[in-house]
Amino acid sequence: MSKSDPREIQDLVEAVQAFELVEVVAYEHSGKRVPIASDEAGGTAPGSELEVMVRHAVGGIETRFRMTATAPGMELASDVGVVSKAEDCVLAEHLLPDFLEEIGIMAAYPYLREGTSTSAVRLGLPAPTPGVASSRTVHSPRHRRSTRQRPGR
Question: What pTM was estimated for this model as a whole?
């Protein structure tokens, strides 16, 4: 390995020590009222989905989560990116799912929850209560390997 080659991090504990959270980016927090269908009037159970995206390169990783929630009378969306940096390091590909499940979602979840709750309250509707984030919350990320040397906006 030459001096200019990045160090590849192979262990989650090492990743936690190497990567520092530097920014949480709000890409979207929105809500809208929608007509209540006659079959929803009885109180359809609310639903939510979580979409996961990853961009990583030498020096950093951005984990991005988009939560959408629906309930009678409303549709909500919250899209948050968590940017972590580590000088001259890159996360090994096999660690990406663990990084998402153990680090990324835990950093993003409070912002996702706040975004959907605030949007509902501003519409004058009851705030949904999303489930607790856990490693089972995160599935099948759309992984984008960046061609840039450093992640960022």
Answer: 0.76
